[in-house]
Amino acid sequence: MKLSRIFAAVIIAAASAFGANAQRAMNPITKAMMDVYQQQLLEDPKDYETYFRRANEYYNHDQYLRALSDVENAIRYTPATDKDLLFQEYSLRGNIYYMNGKYAEALTDLNKALELDPTSYVTIYLIANTQYELGDLQNARTTYRRLQRINNRSAEALFGLARIAARENNLGLANDLSNEAVDLAPSSADSYVRRAAVRKLMGSNQGAVEDLLVAISTDKSNPLAIAELVSLSNSDYTAVMNGLSAAIRTAPNQPIFLYLRATIAMAHHRYQAALTDFQKIIDLNLYDYAGLHDSMALCHLALCHYPEALQEANFAIGSADDNSPYYVTRSRIRRAMGDDKLALESADMAVEQNNLNNEALIQKAWCFTDAGKKKDAAALLGEVVLNDDTNPYYLLTRATLLSADNQRQGAQSVATDLLDLPSPSATDVKSLHGFALLLLDKPGEGVAWIEDVLAATPDNDGSLHYNAACFYAHQGNLDRAFECMESALRNGYASLYDWKVNRDGLINVEPLRADPRFADLMSKYDYLFL
C-alpha cells in the first residue's frame, strides 16, 4: 500500500466531514463525458438512458439535486416494459432521497424497486435501513430478519438488529449482536466501522473510537473509517484525540495516526498542535509530500507566521506538478502580508494551472476586490457558481461581491437562491442562511437563525460562536458580537488570521476590530496563539 494513497484517503475523508457541502470533483474525462451527455439530450430530450447515466455520474459526485432531476426524467421516459432499467432508476432515486434525509420518499421508491425485483438483497437492506431512520423499529426489525432468512450469516442484519436494540436501550443485546457480526468477518475493516456506529448509539464514544482505529489499522486507506473518525471529532473531540494519542503511543512510527491527529487538530483550529504532528512526520522521515507542507503553510497562516507559511507554500509548489491549490495558499499568504501584486500573480498561476478550481477563482476575485475591480470579481464568482450552484459559500460570496458593486437586485437574487438550497438541518451553520438574510434586509430572521444554531449544537471548538460573532458584527449588534467572540475564544477558536486579518465577504469580524473590547479580548486569550 503506497502512503500517497493513504494520505489521499485522509484528505478526501476530512474534506467530506469538515467541508461545507463538499462534493467530489469531476476529472477532465468525466467532464468531457458529461458534455457528450448534454449534446445527446439536446438532440433527443427523451433519451432516458442518457438521463440515467448522467444521473449516476451526478450521484457519484454528490450532486444530488442534479442527479434527482435527471433520474426523474429517466423514469418519466423509460418504457414500462423495461423493468430492469426501471428497477435501477427507482433504486437510484431512493438512494438520492435517502442521502438527503427524505426517508418517506426513499421508502416509496425502494418499495417500487423491490416490486420490480423481489429477490434484491441490497434493496431489502436499504428498505430496512430506511424504516430504521423513520423510527419504524418494528418493521425495520422484521425486514432485517427477512435478510437473515435469505442469508443466515448476514452481518448487515445483525448490525441492523444491534442498532435497533441500542435505540431501545437494550445495550446488552446490542453489544452481543454487534460482537457476533464482527466475529463473522474479524479481518474486515467494515465490521469495526459498523460496530463503532452501534457503540456510538450506546453512548460509548471511546469504544467507537477504538473500533475506528482498528478499522484504520486493518485498512489504512479505508475512507469510511477515516470519515467516521473525523465526524466523531465534531461531537467528541476529546475522545477522538485521546484515542489517537493512545494509538500513537502504541505505534509511534505509524504516520497515518500522526497525520490524522494533525488533520483533526487543524480542522478544529488547534494549529500549533497540528504543526507539531506535521513536523514530527517530516523529522522522523515517515512521509513527505506537497500536501503536507501546504497544510503546514495554512497552519502558519492561521497563526500569522507569514515567513514560515510562505516557505512551506513555496516548498509545496515546487514539490508537485498539480500545484493549483498550493498557489491559492501562497496567494492568501501574500494578501495577508499586504503584497497585493504578488498575491494576484499567485492567484493567476492557480487559475492557469486549473481554470475549474473554484477556490482559485474565488481567491483571484478577492485580489480583484482589493484592487477595486469589483465587476471583474463578481464576474469570476459567476463562473464559480456555474461550476457549482449547490455550495452555499460560493453563492454567498457571489451575492456579497454583487452587493459590494451596488448590484443590489442581483445580490438579493443570488441570496434567495442560497436560501432555496436543501440543507441537512435548519440549524446547520454551513447553510449560511443568516448571512443571506442580512443581504435580503431580513435581520430579524437572521438573528433567529443564528440563535437557533447556537442552541442546537454544542460548540466544542468555538467555530459556531465565531460565525455568530461575524453575523452580529455585520448585523450591527456589537454587544452580542463581543459576547459571541468571547465564547468562541473560550472554546478554543485559535485562528489569529481570522480574528485580526480576514476581511473577505461577511464571514469576518472586521467591524469589531476598532472597538477597544476587541483588543482586550485578544489580550485575554493570547495563549491560544502561542
Helix content: over 70%
Are there runs of 5+ residues with pLDDT below 50, and where? Answer: none
Tally of helical runs: 30
CATH topology of the domain at 289-383: Serine Threonine Protein Phosphatase 5, Tetratricopeptide repeat
Query: Strand tally, please?
Result: 0
Spatial shape: globular
| Text of the CATH class of the domain at 289-383 | Mainly Alpha
Pattern of helices and strands: HHHHHHHHHHHHHHHHHHHHHHHHHHHHHH
First-last Cα distance: 37 Å
Q: What's the overall average pLDDT, rounded?
A: 92
The CATH homologous superfamily of the domain at 289-383 is called Tetratricopeptide repeat domain
The main sheet comes to: none
Radius of gyration: 24 Å
Secondary structure class reads mainly alpha
Secondary-structure arrangement, i.e. CATH architecture of the domain at 289-383 = Alpha Horseshoe
Beta-strand content estimate: under 5%
How does this structure look, described?
The chain is mostly helical. The protein has a domain at 289-383: Tetratricopeptide repeat domain (Serine Threonine Protein Phosphatase 5, Tetratricopeptide repeat), CATH 1.25.40. It is 74% helix and 0% strand. It has helices at residues 3-18, 28-43, 48-60, 64-77, 83-99, 103-116, 121-133, 137-150, 155-167, 171-184, 189-201, 205-218, 223-235, 237-250, 255-267, 271-283, 290-302, 306-318, 324-337, 340-353, 358-370, 374-387, 392-404, 408-420, 433-439, 443-456, 463-475, 478-490, 496-500, 516-524. Helix 23 (392-404) packs antiparallel against helix 24. The chain is globular, with a radius of gyration of 24 Å.
